[in-house]
Specification:
The structure holds two protein chains of two kinds. By secondary structure, chain A is mostly helical. Chain A folds into three domains: 131 residues; 137 residues; 215 residues, no CATH class. Helix content of chain A is 77%, strand content 2%. In chain A, strand 1 and strand 2 form a beta hairpin. The N and C termini of chain B lie far apart (63 Å). In chain B, helix 2 packs antiparallel against helix 3 and helix 6 packs across helix 7. Chain B is globular. By secondary structure, chain B is an all-alpha fold. The chains are: A mainly alpha, B mainly alpha. At the A-B interface, helix 1, strand 1, helix 4, helix 5 and helix 6 of A face helix 4, helix 5, helix 7 and helix 11 of B.
């Protein structure tokens, strides 16, 4: 078994499963489980291969760049593949009882279409993380965007449809901007392979405009402030497992692509001015998202705005990567943060889904007594909050610590200040939810039961988010493989 | 001199038609202008010596997209009429909004012009004779199993792109089916015997034509996408004439047909992996046969997908 097998399994496994789940609508969950098995084995094997033998590449169809398409598994790629697998498996476990809660025609319909769409989403993410080809990345982005939009629309109600349509427009135009950029890159460099582009890139109008177009499109997809407007309604109106996937993974896909573009394909453009611009947008996102999260009256909207804020931290990293020495710390910090956030966000959305199921609403002011009926979910929410705020030993703490120290090393004290303020605001909005949740209920409030697996899935992910800080050095070792350092 | 004049006229007409299609008050006329625009764009692709693109643009960009937009328009009108009937008021257009719309249109127009300027600046700075990958693709053509360079790129050099794109197509129909139930074309033409006897001839001819385009794609412009578009046209005719309902009665069969492309392509990729050790790497000397099998499956899926999108939702489920 060569790495080619594992990469093939990562892409073909969920893709074929998606097709089969559509052909046999009643076997959807089984297909998802089968795909999870294939992907799980492939990811584990690929991590071992990368840790043991360094970066592994594969030429699809045997041609090799520039004519063909190359796949490459380096530390960053396998880390995100593993994260995707973890969250997708958790969502699969959660979604099965979630979708079967009521036996109405609508619920049956949702279940029939959820599984193929989930599997398409998984395929798209795996393809996105593995490929080294700018045009192939476009195709993966399209697959990802359409799957995400269809999943948001699955709820089928007015608000969800409106949010899905808006999301579709943003996602489509962003893809077109990206594609325009790719065309310009091809015109200039006569290749769309990331590594070859890096070798042939010369700063000039074509590549400047190309990078601007691609970055603009990807920023909209990653929902970086001020292009985040589509995210809160889309994430808040989707079914809970979908919100979790979107918040934890889909926006991160676009961020990942930005990393590849700015640090590998066209690092010549990563000037201090560009870095500062990213840093400022990131800082604005942290403040704007946190303040909005603080003022929301619905739990799911609060979590969605918190996602806007969390994405800001990731972009803060761009401004901290200018110094060669501090680069690795900031890089590890941001990616550790990304991992911890993804798990914490999933846990929070799943817990919010449980609350919605039990209480029939997610109004924060009326959450009293939830901790009595759903102790596990409330605990998960709290633990995820710990990671979000960045208390030790959570992954959030380790990531923020690395970012902070990188900022101080680079003399960018303002970045540090924003991180601290953002953490305080996060603590405030988490505490707002927790104090309500732990208030004893007025007697006589009726709640619907929630299947235990739905509660424990949320808790498990919250525990991973907290525990990720302890695995920090292992993750750093993984991230060093094939990263953009000499 | 004549070719330049022709090209100049083409560019001018394309721009004017695009403007008209966007701005026409009569939406129906706007759609027709859009369809004409697609045909002219196909001609532009021909002038740029990209016959494959021209075929795809004419079939998908103009024909099928036009049909989709027209059906959307009809549905919109039907809904408007129903709403107007309920309120029992006159169906006068919302004049008050017109001014605001004009305003935002000006802003959008200015932004588009600025964008055009930036793009022109970037495009003019590109190397005048970009080497591209043409030379390399042509050099490797003999190993690709086909002699049409476009098919070689789509099904061999960059077959992985095409696999994911077939996935996008399937995803499109899954997404549309997830959204809502489809509407069957209201007009049942079963009583029009002349039309029916014409269709009895035309439908098989179109199917044969699709097969021909698939086969010829190995050496000349054509292939699964163009053939699939033709098949979709046939399916559309069948749906509109009421013949299609019998075909779609068997949902499992339809679902299998829709997924056939992804399944065969994906399984072929896996089998190739076991055979040669490379993902989608065809065994030496057999590439032509593999490509034909994959394309045949893709043709069925593409035709069904594009045709069934017209229903705007899933067929009835039991």
């Amino acid at each position: 078994m060569t790495p080619a097998w594992f990469m093939g399994g990562l892409i073909l496994g969920p893709l074929v499963a998606a097709a089969l789940a559509f052909t046999f609508p009643k076997r959807g969950r089984g297909m998802a489980c089968a795909a999870a098995g294939v992907v799980g084995i492939a990811v584990t094997a690929l991590i071992r291969a990368v840790l043991g033998g360094g970066v592994s590449s594969h030429r699809v169809s045997g041609w090799g760049a520039p004519l063909g398409i190359d796949l490459r598994a380096d530390g960053l790629a396998v880390l995100l593949l593993a994260l995707t697998a973890l969250i997708a498996v958790a969502v699969t476990g959660y979604a099965a009882p979630y979708l079967r809660a009521t036996d109405s025609p609508e619920a049956r319909h949702r279940e029939r279409y959820f599984w193929p769409l989930l599997l398409f989403l998984w395929t798209a993410l795996n393809a996105l993380f593995l490929t080294r080809d700018l045009f192939n990345l476009y195709v993966a982005l399209e697959l990802l965007g359409f799957a995400a939009v269809a999943l948001v629309a699955l709820e089928g109600k007015g608000d969800a449809l409106r949010a899905a349509l808006r999301y579709l427009f943003v996602s489509l135009s962003a893809s077109l901007f990206y594609l325009l950029g790719v065309a310009l890159v091809y015109g200039q460099c006569a290749t769309v392979d990331l590594a070859l582009v890096a070798g042939r890139a010369q700063p000039g109008p074509a590549l400047t405009v190309a990078l601007a177009l691609m970055t603009g499109g990807l920023i909209a997809k990653a929902a970086l402030f001020p292009l985040h407007f589509w995210l809160p309604p889309a994430h808040a109106n989707a079914p809970a497992p979908v919100s979790a996937l979107l918040s934890a993974l889909v926006v991160k896909g676009a961020f990942y692509l930005l990393l590849r573009l700015w640090f590998e394909a066209l690092p010549v453009f990563h000037t201090p001015a560009a870095a500062r611009l990213f840093g400022m947008l990131g800082a604005a996102a942290i403040l704007w998202g946190s303040i909005n999260a603080l003022t929301q009256s619905r739990l799911k909207l609060l979590i969605a705005y918190s996602t806007v804020a969390q994405l800001g931290y990731l972009f803060l990293m761009f401004s901290l990567m200018t110094g060669r020495d501090g680069g690795f710390g900031a890089w590890c910090g941001a990616l550790l943060l990304l991992g911890a956030r993804a798990c914490a966000k999933t846990a929070m959305f799943l817990a919010a889904g449980n609350i919605l199921r039990a209480a029939g609403h997610d109004r924060i002011n009326d959450l009293a007594g939830i901790a009595q009926v759903l102790p596990v979910s409330a605990f998960a929410l709290g633990l995820a909050g710990v990671s979000l705020v960045g208390l030790p030993p959570s992954g959030g703490f380790a990531g923020k610590w690395l970012l902070l120290s990188a900022g101080l090393r680079e003399g960018q004290w303002w970045g540090g200040a924003v991180i601290l303020v953002g953490s305080l605001l996060a603590a405030a909005y988490i505490m707002r939810v927790m104090t309500r949740a732990f208030t004893p209920a007025a007697p006589g409030t009726a709640v619907r039961p929630v299947p235990p697996i739905m509660e424990w899935t949320a808790l498990a992910l919250a525990l991973v988010a907290v525990g990720m800080g302890l695995a920090g050095s292992w993750l750093a070792e993984l991230l060093r493989v094939g990263g953009p350092w000499p | 001199m004549i070719p330049q004049l022709l090209d100049g006229t083409l560019v001018l007409v394309v721009v004017v038609l695009a403007w008209r299609a966007l701005n026409d008050r009569d939406l129906f006329r706007g759609v027709i202008e859009f369809i004409a625009l697609g045909l002219l764009l196909a001609m532009a692709w021909l002038r740029l010596r990209a016959p494959d693109l021209a075929l795809a643009e004419a079939a998908v960009g103009s024909g099928l997209t036009g049909a989709l937009i027209l059906s959307a328009l009809v549905r919109m009108r039907r809904r408007e009429q129903a709403a107007a009937g309920q309120t029992a008021g006159g169906a006068t257009g919302p004049r008050g909004e017109a001014r605001g719309k004009n305003h935002s249109r000006m802003v959008l127009g200015a932004l588009s012009l600025a964008m055009l300027g930036i793009l022109a600046w970037a495009a003019l700075s590109l190397p005048a004779k970009s080497p591209g990958l043409t030379a390399e693709a042509l050099a490797r053509l003999p190993d690709s199993g086909v002699t049409n360079p476009v098919t070689a790129v789509l099904l061999n050099f960059r077959a992985y792109d095409t696999l994911l794109e077939i996935g996008v197509l399937l995803l499109a129909i899954v997404g549309v089916w997830a959204l809502r139930r489809g509407d069957w074309p209201a007009a049942d033409l079963r009583e029009r015997l002349l039309l029916l006897s014409l269709l009895r001839w035309v439908l098989p001819l179109l199917a044969v034509g699709a097969g021909y385009l698939l086969w010829i794609g190995a050496s000349a412009p054509g292939g699964a996408f163009q053939g699939g578009a033709l098949l979709a046209g046939a399916l559309l005719l069948a749906l509109l004439s009421g013949l299609g309902k019998r075909l779609l009665w068997r949902e499992r069969l339809i679902r299998t047909g829709l997924t056939l492309g992804v399944l065969v392509f994906g399984v072929a990729g896996a089998v190739a992996l076991g055979w040669t050790g490379g993902l989608l790497q065809y065994p030496t000397g057999q590439a032509g046969a593999w490509i034909l099998v994959i394309e045949a499956a893709a043709l069925v899926s593409i035709g069904l997908t594009l045709g069934l999108l017209y229903l705007g939702g899933r067929p009835e489920e039991k």
